[in-house]
Amino acid sequence: MGNDYYQVSRKMEDQIAALSEAVFGRQCKDQTELTNRFQSIGRSRALQDMQAQLSFLAEAVATERPSLFTDYVAWLKTMLLERGIPISDVVNNLTYNREVLQNMLPPEIHSVACAYVDMGIHILDGSPEEPPTFLHVQAPLADLSRQYLEALLRAERHEASRLIMDAVQSGIAVRDIYLHVFQRSQYEIGRLWQMNRINVAQEHYCSAATQTIMAQLYPYIFSGKKNGYRLVATCVSGELHEIGIRMITDLLEMDGWDTYFLGASTPADNILQALEEQAAHVLAVSATMTFHVRMVAELIQKVRSSELGKTLKIMVGGYPFNVEPELWQKVGADAFARDAKEAVSVAKGLVTA
After folding, report:
1. d(CA 109, CA 101)
2. In this predicted model, what pLDDT tens digit does every residue of 223-275 receive, in sequence order?
3. CATH number of the domain residue 298 falls in
4. Global pTM value
5. Cα–Cα distance between 287 and 266 in angstroms, integer?
6. DSSP letters along 259-288, please?
7. CA-to-CA separations, 95 to 30, 240, 338, in angstroms, rounded
8. Number of folded domains in the chain?
9. How far is CA 167 from the centre of its chain?
């Protein structure tokens, strides 16, 4: 990452609590009607949301990728509109962010950050208000995907499991179920939460149920012939979204790999230890939240400085890498995969090139 921009983002984060307090106070002073709304969710929650927004901005600055912030703003627009919050409140909040950054940070720092905020304000006019569904009627296994998700949303986990096991027994490949049912339904669950159609508890239930059902398919996954390649898969410290990287390890197991899945929020030192113990050929790192991108870069830098890191191949993936397709180069990886299917071919290419 560019050292100047990285330092700018660090200085922003050093003051993120104070910046958030200032934005909060400024907005409450000018928009007194917001006081009741903020009281309903709690002051600490409101400040937490404002800190998250500044974290997205800092990450975009650190990577010199404004799209990471403007994409977040477009997502935020839809999420808030579906919860009855007018777009004018988003514009005002970004404007207050800009003013606070100018007032509290040195010119050499706030100039870059404010330029990114201006891009965020500008994109609000054109970004779509409702993202399209991921369960397209013409997609492979569309009916099964729809029935599966509907069962989960009714909290009928056993029915969802029956649908999957019946499909496998009928001859549908486990790989196709992962790609066209599990993966698509997870994308759709995220969209439904954004659209305020489901709550956090439902989102967590659906993801947990899918992981349970995935485990029921393990007899089909771990029965293939091995190809001699080993991969360690992990989420960086603080990243809790693990189901995507878990799907990738399962698909790689079907392709003959030995995988070592570390799960969510794994400390860097433990990742290094696992790489050495497993004599891994590839490290796969996942980050779903944009404000974890720098942690991916720092992990990769740490791995590269080790003896094993001189020959190890590193693949990254997750939402921010799809938003900015060249971001993998910025964090120092060897490649990135857009989804679970692509991850299998990318991993193979890394060890056979």
Report:
1. 9
2. 778 999 999 999 998 888 999 999 999 999 999 999 999 988 899 999 999 99
3. 3.40.50.280
4. 0.91
5. 12
6. EEE--SSB-HHHHHHHHHHHT-SEEEEE--
7. 12, 31, 33
8. 3
9. 29
